[in-house]
Each structure stands twice: as C-alpha cells, then as structure tokens.
Amino acid sequence: MTIVVGHLATPEGLQALRTAVAEAGERGLPLVVVTSGKLPLEECRPEVEELVATLAADVDVRVEEGTGDLAEDLIRAATSTGAGLIVIGLRRRSPVGKLILGAGAQRILVEAPCPVLAVKVSG
C-alpha cells in the first residue's frame, strides 16, 4: 500500500506534496510522487527527492514519470501500487468556478480506486 501524489510546481501542488509526505510519515507508508510529464524524469527526480527530504527524512519515496495527463497518471499509479490514499491540491475558484470542480480533480474523485484527500493552500 502507498500514498500517491502528483508533483506540480504550483502552491497547490506543493501543499499536496507537504500533506502527502505528512500522511506517509504518520501511516508508515511509502510515497509515490508522479511528475507532471512536462519535464523528463531525470530533471524532476532530484527536485522531488530534495523537497521530500526537507519535509520528512524518514519517508520512502519513489518518483514516477507522468505522461502529461495527471488525473490518468494518478489513477494508474494508485491502481498499480494498491494505494491507500491519493492526495490532490485544489485552488480557490471564482463564484462561478465553485459550481464546477476542475475536470482533473473531478475525474480523480470519481475514478480513484481509493480515498482521495483534497487540500487547499492555507492562508
């Protein structure tokens, strides 16, 4: 069993990573971080591993390369690893935007093979 999170260079992405690291540490589970697919894995891995190490040194982390469809990548990673949790970050939306959850987040919530924890940037 694992915890799965996507790596995005946004405030929401960083908050999701922080939360996923904390959950992995508390539960004693490995963490699978899926890159956005915008950069080659070789370029993303050191940054992700450094971020995780600064948040919690005792978490076992594996970085997987995404394809560019983060919703599909997170669902695939959660399914293949038997994940116990997917962590996603959400951003604030306009009043109209609040009526419609982002398509990627909605897809993850509907298709995920495990519980999904949605976090927002504090402040």
UniProtKB/TrEMBL annotation:
Could you tell me which Pfam families the record lists for this protein?
Usp
Instruction: Enumerate the spans annotated as UspA domain.
Output: 51-120
Q: InterPro entries from the entry? A: Rossmann-like_a/b/a_fold, Universal_stress_UspA, UspA
Signal sequence extent: none
Regarding protein family, the annotation reads: Belongs to the universal stress protein A family.
- What is the name listed in the Swiss-Prot or TrEMBL entry for this protein? Universal stress protein
Protein species of origin: Promicromonospora citrea
